[in-house]
Amino acid sequence: MKVVIIGGDAAGMSAAAKLRRLNKAAEIRVYEKGNYLSYSSCGLPYSAAYEERSIDKLIQRTPADFEASDIHPRLRHEVLRVNPGEKTVLVRSLETGDEFLDGFDKLLIATGAHPIVPEIPGAGLENVFTLKTIDDGLKLKSALPNAQSVLIAGGGYVGVEVAESLASVGKKVTILQRPDKLLKNFDPEISSIALRELERLGVEVKLSEKLISISRAGGSLEARTDKGAYRADLVLLALGVRPATEFLEGSGIALSENGAVIVDREMRTNLPDIYAAGDCAEIYHMVTKSNVYIPLATTANKAGRMVASNLNGGHVEFPGTLGCAAVKVGEKELARTGLSEAEAAAFGFEAKAVVVEANSLPHYYPGSEKITIKLIYESKTRRILGAQAAGPMGTVLRINIFAAAIANGMTTEALGMLDLCYAPPFSTVWDAVHVAANAAK
User: Are both 2-43+56-114+242-311 and 117-239 of the same fold?
Assistant: First the structure.
């Protein structure tokens, strides 16, 4: 059996490594357009901003490591077209320009996602960056020592993480955000805490402003919005991502409206022997019982590991994502799982929400701080649908408890009486998780 994998990062290389463990005889070929494979892109905001931190440490395994396992990656090779009927892919070497066909018995599409670059004047100017790949990180890192002021277009995870990191090393940072709040996946009660923390760090945040153009202004750049103009030495475009699936147009492989590959719970596409996983594909959601597009490294790695069994002839179903995500902002942690209040309404749930503030530790123990928790649950059954929180260290781990509760169909009553560890250095006798669950009526 010959398996071709398009894309050499989270989903693709997780699948390759697992498939090799399952099948010692399979021929495994990986085509990767970029210069690196198997790296932690989530670490880029924390490596690019600090001169002493090496981006190379984000690389998990090298091509030589995979070759030693009889997995054959080809870097700087772009797949131009998939021919399902012939079971071939058309590949171009970006080094030589040569094109060739390669055949497969099974195909995994794991091309990930592109950073969104707006079609505005100046988006391609020098010192305008994106941050998605190792190459992006190296370019940004090399430019930052000469930049005192940075403008970040986009207030999502990457924008907020980079802003926090740059503020901590003394850069003047401005965030431009088109929506009226940061971190659109969080409800306002939680995202507002991130805003206050960024402002405490000295980050200037401009909400409800649309980026219109970027131009040179003397020795710096000028970003114009529908409300004003801002000068900066460097601009980072952190406007989200879109599935990297343009090369599949005309192949017969079904794509969703946003371009993500449509798959079933086995990660199968609509065509035989062709699978897709990771940020290029939809994923099944545990709560909504439907496909969604949530590009997260955790999901991509799990999906890649699981689909290896199916490439090997199995029929394993993905249990479902909860969209668990976390972000650090100064001294605050933010995390979410399941559905937001708005998402619950959009998917037709009759839901309620409760917001509580609870101590992280007993009031008499040093270091006690407030944790804000928002809990979303079904009105009639009180089944937990989602949770979000912001607070000091330990907040993210509490959202992990809510994730486990959702995955097991727990109600607020059951969670409110769950036996959790207690000692004054770690929590209150009724943990913040209990307090939130018991406040749901």
Answer: yes
Whether the CB-CB separation of 375 and 383 falls below 8 Å is answered with no
Domains in the chain: boundaries = 2-43+56-114+242-311, 117-239, 331-439
- Among 329, 334, 336, 374, residue whose Cα is nearest residue 356: 374
Instruction: Write the CB contacts of 42 (distance below 8 Å, at least 6 apart in sequence).
Output: 297
Q: What percent of the chain has pLDDT over 90?
A: 97
| Known active-site residue 42 | yes
Does the 117-239 domain belong in CATH 2.30.42.60?
A: no
Question: For 98-140, how does the pLDDT look when each residue is reduced to its tens digit (9 = 90+)?
Answer: 999 999 999 999 999 999 999 999 999 999 999 999 999 999 9
* Catalytic residue selected from 42, 280, 324, 421: 42
Alpha carbon distance 139, 94 (integer Å): 20
Residue carrying the six token digits 């009105």 = 379
CA gap 188, 206 in Å, rounded:
16
Residue 293: CB atoms within 10 Å = 19
The tokens describing 344, both together, are 């619950």
Distance CA 131, CA 141 (A): 10
Q: How far is CA 352 from the centre of its chain?
A: 27
CB atoms within 10 A of CB 320: 18
